[in-house]
Amino acid sequence: MLGVLLALSLAAQPADVIWLNAYDAVHDGVAVPERAHFNVWVWTDDRQPSSVVLGDARLANPSSEKPKGDYVWRNLGAVTVKKGTAGVTLDRFAATLVLAADPQYKPGDAMRNIRVSNKPDPVSDNRAETYRDSDSYHMFPAYASRADWEKRVEEIRLRMRIAGGLLPMPDRTQMNERIFDTIRHDDYTVAKVTFESRPGYLVTGNLYTPKGEGPFPAVLCPHGHWKSGRLEDSEKASVPARCITFARMGIVAFSYDMVGFQDSKQFPHEFNDPRNKLWSIDTFAFQLWNSIRAIDFVQTLPAVDKGRIGCTGGSGGGTQTFTLCSVDDRISVAAPVNIISCSTQADCSCESPPIMRMNGISDMEIGAVMAPRPLLMVSATGDWTLETPRVEYPAIRSIYKLYNATDKIEAAQFDAGHNYNKASREVVYRFFGKWLLGRGEQYGGFTEPPYTADPADRMRVFPGDQQPEGYPSREEIVRQTIEAARARWKSGLPTGRCSYSSRHGQGGARRPRGVQARPAHSGVARARQVRGRDRRVPDWRTQQPADRAAAARHRHFPRHV
pLDDT tens digits for 82-107? Predict the structure, then answer.
């Protein structure tokens, strides 16, 4: 019936009216058979300002003075459109675009015969949405005040916690940490490390410690998708060089395996079972929790100053850096390298869990949650961070400006491909020397000294790809994780019983707290009397049947009432 009404209504439109839903307008443009002058209308949320780019012209209209949260028709003005197909850009809240040659035309009048509801459904009506993928271009919203931004931060952090399986927060179980097989050098030591981020699941890595007495600051060094992971030592990226240099500077460095790399083989790097994802059991959630527990681990070390913890990584390690900073304020200084982008949102499963970037959230906003803590953005001309000096850095710096902390954000770009090379590392050393060590003048011109990485076999926790013995299987870890999540959720769910009668034999089902029962319709009551089925419904205020005798005869009521 709706399709018939729609067809008849559109057929009745004058020839000088062009009516398009937002999705078609943006993706196909507007085809105009000959040059014409149009009044431009959009159907949009009255709480949001409106704008449209039509060909070379841009029209805009502010939000309603007294918004009610309804969709309204707005006349954005008039424009002359050339013959052919004109490109269209619309705000994401716009659902329909209308071009009318007649200035007296009112699309609201036609709307009554076209739509059933007075606003688009953001879930089922895809015409109100523009398709986005990991390569879509993201705009950074303008925030007028610190209060506006911090309201957005609450949303971002909640979304990150849900995406990372941190709602409710998992229990901090015993880590059973081990530090062993220490290799001693003249100015630092390096040891093998294991600890359990969750029962039976091992985090594996190496701990680089300065010589001398602490306490020292510490820095987490998650690696990227380099072939050798935390042991990658190439011109493009060297994790050992980074950690050795930090240790020589007087900073404890902890490099640890991302899931599925080097010694972390209990799970593959990508595991995407749909059932497990419902419990946030995926690569991103495991890695994020591993990083949170890595902070716990370094804070237990007697040589570490618990209040000075930094984090830096490149590529996937850069994603791990800024996502960790968004959920854990214990990171006081951060340097994500060659990752935060307006045009590419990382698409590996360890970087893109479900719902993380919904509602327009981009990596720029997630990275900006670091404010006002010191942040260094390193980029390259040969990857998706090409625009950082012009786009991403000014955008995030605008948030630091709200905190009067623009001195705590810096950016550096190098003419190179995707990397965490020597030049990128050196600017990170200088930044951490300034903000983590508090010796900016000493490290202002610092360069990386020569180093020699220890052989990979001496650094491996489990040489030769052998698997750890005496630990639970992958299936058992999944089972334990789900059980622990169930237990956490149970304490937050409604537990009261009520006497609920179901027509389908679901007696004793529970009504969520705060939900009011519908009053019986008088017509229904009369119909039941006529049919001899006058079964009085339970009184929800007392949770007792109003007629005990009738309840006793009715099999749908539980006997205990």
Answer: 899 999 988 888 889 999 999 889 89
The partner residues of 89 in beta bridges, in order of sequence, read 53
Q: Report which of 388, 247, 407 is spatially closest to residue 318, judged by C-alpha positions.
A: 388
How far apart are the C-alpha atoms of 413 and 472, rounded to whole Å? Answer: 45
Using CA atoms, how far residue 323 sits from 163, 264, 307, 326, 436, in Å, is 11, 21, 19, 5, 20
Largest CA distance in the chain: 97
DSSP notation for 192-236: EEEEEEETTEEEEEEEEEESS---EEEEE----S-TTGGG-BSSS
DSSP H helical ranges for 472-536: 474-490, 522-530
Instruction: Please report which residue ranges of 21-96 form alpha helices under DSSP H.
Output: 22-28
SS3 content of the chain, % helix, strand, coil (to 5): 30, 20, 50
Hey, how many other C-beta atoms are within 10 angstroms of the C-beta on 365?
24
Determine which helix (DSSP H) or strand (DSSP E) holds 8, and give its type and residue range: helix 2-11
Of 18-22, 193-197, 242-246, 318-322, the one with minimum mean pLDDT is 18-22
Q: pLDDT (tens digit, 9 = 90+) per residue, 328-349?
A: 999 999 999 999 988 877 777 7
In the DSSP assignment, the letter for residue 439 is -
Q: How far is CA 368 from CA 160, 362, 389, 461, in A?
A: 13, 10, 15, 36
H or E element in which residue 378 lies: strand 375-380
Closest CA to 149 of 370, 348, 330: 370
CB atoms within 10 A of CB 526: 11
Given a cut of 70, is residue 538 above it in pLDDT? no
Answer for the pair 456, 255: CB distance below 8 angstroms, yes or no.
Answer: no
Give the integer Cα–Cα distance in Å for 31 and 373. Answer: 50
